[in-house]
């Protein structure tokens, strides 16, 4: 009996020591990242770069809308365009009141633009080519500072890289809008099953599209962090930063949406222009979360180099 008691005591003591050691490591790791983010936010000019990136991104919106209209008019039947616009606006601006105003503003003018979709496509394509290349330049400058990139290619090579990335984004948008009708068919099929079997898939649909949105954001962030800087970042750091960027985006979405729904008086102050104010803040916060996640990725690389 005494041997069994001693064994249990030693086992409990070993587990206690392991738990304390693990807790100390977690607290040390948390302190390292919190202190590092606080220091780098100042030394890496987080707020200044976030403003520059968000301003460059806002300049891309008008040509992007023209390109979207061209893609919609080319690949999507006219009778389902309104549904595609609703889905895109809900994804781009996930706040009901602002999204409803923007839907009324866009759908009311979409048919007039679709009559000249080819002109809109050319103007939007060239405009997006220059505006998005400027955004990539701002993003690259910010990430080069965060990841301590010393050698940068000449401006011609950098601009060609920006143009190539813009073309890839245009292809991505074209493919996404080509896939959207198939998602609508899937939704109609699920609704048909609901009517026949009396089942409810509403919660499943919401979770499914939330999952697809999170996966899309993760891979977009990972692609940007991997291809934009002027040096190759280790994939573990890229995926870690992309994970935190996705998490920050979701937290900002929920927190900002809760604030707008319960505490904000912007609708009374700005009226119909509230959607533009909300959009500006959303773009700025999205840019900041992206750069903040990149700082976490760089801190991870530095910690790995110290340990090795």
What's a concise summary of this model?
α3 (about 60-75) crosses α6 (about 115-145), α4 (about 80-90) packs across α5 (about 95-115) and α6 crosses α7 (about 155-195). By secondary structure, this protein is an all-alpha fold. About 85% of the residues lie in helices and about 0% in strands.
Gyration radius over CA = 24 Å
Q: What composes the largest sheet?
A: none
Q: Could you give the order of the helices and strands?
A: HHHHHHHHHHH
User: So what's the oligomer here?
Assistant: single chain
Q: How many distinct folded domains?
A: 1
How many H/I helices? 11
* Helix-and-strand structural type: mainly alpha
| DSSP E strands, number | 0
Shape: globular
Unreliable sequence segments: none
Helix content: over 70%
Q: Give the amount of beta strand, in percent.
A: under 5%
Let me know the average pLDDT. 77
Distance from N terminus to C terminus (CA atoms, Å) equals 47 Å
Please render the helix and strand layout as text.
Elements: H1 2-43, H2 46-58, H3 61-75, H4 81-92, H5 96-114, H6 117-146, H7 155-197, H8 202-227, H9 235-262, H10 266-270, H11 274-307
Helix pairs in contact: 1-11, 2-6, 2-11, 3-6, 3-7, 4-5, 5-11, 6-7, 8-9, 9-11
